[in-house]
Amino acid sequence: MDDGYRNTNQVSDDYRYQDGNYDAPNDGYYRGGDEPTQEEDAQSDVTEGHDEDDEVYEGEYQGIPHPDDIKEKQKKRAPAVDDEYRDRADLMAERMEDEEQLAHQYENIIEECGHGRFQWTLFFVLGLALMADGVEVFVVGFVLPSAEKDMCLSSSNKGMLGLIVYLGMMVGAVLLGGLADKLGRKQCLIISLAINAAFAFLSSFVQGYGFFLFCRLISGLGIGGTLPIVFPYFSEFLSREKRGEHLSWLCMFWMIGGIYASAMAWSIIPHYGWGFSMGTKYHFHSWRVFVLVCALPCIASLVALKFMPESPRFLLEIGKHDEAWMILKQVHDTNMRAKGEPERVFTVSYIKTPKQVDEFIEIQSSTGTWYQRWLVRITTTLKQVWDNVLYCLTAQYRMNTLMLAVVWFTMALSYYGLIVWFPDMIRYFQDEAYESRVKIFDEEEVSHFTFNFTLENQIHRNGEYRNDKFIGMKFKEVRFEDSLFEDCYFEDVRSSETFFENCTIISTVFYNTDLYEHKFINCRLINSTFMKEKEGCHIDFEEDNDFLIYLVSFLGSLSVLPGNIISALLMDKIGRIKMIGGSMLISAVCCFFLFFGNSESAMIGWQCLFCGASIAAWNALDVITVELYPTDKRATAFGILNGLCKFGAILGNSIFSSFVGITKVVPILLASSALVGGGLLALRLPETREQVLM
């Protein structure tokens, strides 16, 4: 090569790449006379003998940029410089365009990853979390009969304890669902399950009603976040053709949670010896053991979730391309190894990431105190969550959100209202049958007799009892009216729904009994003594009715199995909208047949039919809610709608239970009309089975 060529090579070395622009040396001298190094000489030799037909000139190999390359780099770089001066609407429009491209590319990537071992592992992990949600709904209802006696609960306290869990779940759904769109699906689900597990565990040990109520409230708040997170989380690992079916299969774990809670209650709570006492103040009865056992699915899911990755779709949404790519590669490799094709290579090298618009300023550690920095972070995050809530009501999503809100609310009002009404009606029929078997004793005279056995479901009128002993016995549903007790002795007596009305009690001793003052109505007590009354509340002897209530809940949970299977198999064939509308209308028809439920067996049968028919609507609602909203708003929207669902559950429980024993017309008409209205409105929602996740 001649010296002229070497001079040209040296000139190219003196160009420097500065922030996307090429600048010449600024010393003002032309460096043509210096000798090149050996490395530079080797670089120039690469171009020797190059075919001129290739239309590649020598300078391109020496680091001198092609003019077209300079223009392209400047074009790419210009928006980054000018973003702060651009209108937010323009940035959002660009982000929407990026998201649309990402949605279709991500669908292709998930199809390449396949559906296999990874999805099934995640299916069972998230299924345990969903199972914990199902358990939480049943826990309080099962422990209430025992807890009310253990903690001396009044009727109003019992009602509050029954509703407090739904109140916590309502708040948790909105709050944790919104945070999942900002902090991540996995992180927020771990927080949700940890809160539930900790306070459920704590609630089994506390003795006071107030603290127990608080623990169940916070426990409900934690578990309320599972539903809005689990379904978006799992859906973001599923392809379009698998999404409807496998989200429906996932819903089965809620049913399994109900079966688990019913079976555990049936096998644990009646065994009152399964506990311990510490003195006279601390009692750990069997119902507390049941509360502990019900926390196990939550704990198991929490542990397993530590080994699962974050949703790559969420990571792409916040601009974390490399982390998302690594997770998708992990999904691909796991599935390919399970299929016996480990040699299959993950071909994706680059994934589109949407333009980042959120203005989140990270505070340096030197700025302010630690609590000031955390306060700013928390308020900023909550503001972003609130912005997401408002976004769900913008023109683009307003109609869908409002229609879904009505469908969720009407479904919850009727379903949860009837789920409470069914057991209450069964108890009512049981009480009627029990009262019909009452034994009445008139003008009975008993003297010098020792009662050491149980008296149950009896009425004693105008009786006379002289020098009688009542020792180590139980009164159950016994009433003494206008009777005389003279020189009698009561010791170690327990009673349930037992009263003395208009009785005369003379020279009688009550020792270590729970026959308190309020059980003597308009009675005359003459020279009678009460010694060492039983303290606190004591669990009554075994109630036969409890077994039937557990059985009813068990059968009600099991009855949704056929509906779950049918909805999973048909979800992608007939579509979400027809599934919701058809299921709600069939459920409304089932409600009308409740007019003919005049016995326990008939009520149990109609309950099973109603639960089996309505579960398909619940499954389709979960699927369509996931598919109607974009990734960065999906959990927020699900949380809002699920929170509204819990509000409907609170109203349904309160309204329907107030009509037990009064009339069946109002609950049946209210439930059926709500289902018909919600089902018809659901038919106006857009179909989403052919839609990729935005």
Automatic annotation (TrEMBL):
Residues 1-12 have a biased composition (Polar residues). Belongs to the major facilitator superfamily. One of its GO terms (cellular component) is neuron projection. The keyword Hydrolase does not apply. Residues 1-83 are annotated as: Disordered. It is found in: Cytoplasmic vesicle, Secretory vesicle, Synaptic vesicle membrane. This is Synaptic vesicle glycoprotein 2B. One of its GO terms (molecular function) is transmembrane transporter activity. Residues 122-689 form the Major facilitator superfamily (MFS) profile domain. One of its GO terms (biological process) is chemical synaptic transmission. It is a multi-pass membrane protein. The keyword Transmembrane applies. Keywords: Cytoplasmic vesicle, Glycoprotein, Membrane, Neurotransmitter transport, Phosphoprotein, Synapse, Transmembrane, Transmembrane helix, Transport.
